[in-house]
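As promised in the previous annual report, we have extended the structural survey to additional targets. Below is the entry for Methylmalonyl-CoA epimerase, mitochondrial.
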Amino acid sequence: GLLSRLQTSAPTIRTLSSSKPFWQNIPSCLWKLGRLNHVAIAVPDLEKAQSLYKDVLGAQVSETVALPEHGVYTVFVELGNTKLELLHPLGEKSPIASFLQKNKTGGMHHICIEVDDIKAAMTELKKKKIRILSEEPKIGAHGKPVIFLHPKDCHGVLVELEQA
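The corresponding structure token record, generated without further manual editing, is:
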């Protein structure tokens, strides 16, 4: 009766017919995305921001480091599983100065994700039409090569990739 009609009218579920598990059919990258290294926040007043994280929230806060090649001062706030990077302009041509002109009180500037092979990542991302904001990696705040991906290609987020 009713049970046999339900069994015959139920949709058929198709399965992948392959001797390999489905995930083995996905082409592998020559590089791997790693952990979130930090979230960078542009701040108009670096001392005030340092004080918030150190004195009010009780975080471990690094000394201020100038990175002239990037046009910024940086301070790292340790959070256990990741870091915050506080960014402040170093000079008028700093990319952070122009960011702060548009965002007077500061705000999230970029996220940084580690990769195991930055050169392979660059090659593959270019093939996938992801714009990279420099021809070659630059040395970042941690002394390791970094690149930035165009935010328009990353859903509005400026993404920094750092060699792990």
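DSSP finds four helices and nine strands in the chain. Residues 116 and 151 are 22 Å apart (CA to CA). These points will be discussed at the next consortium meeting with the crystallography subgroup.
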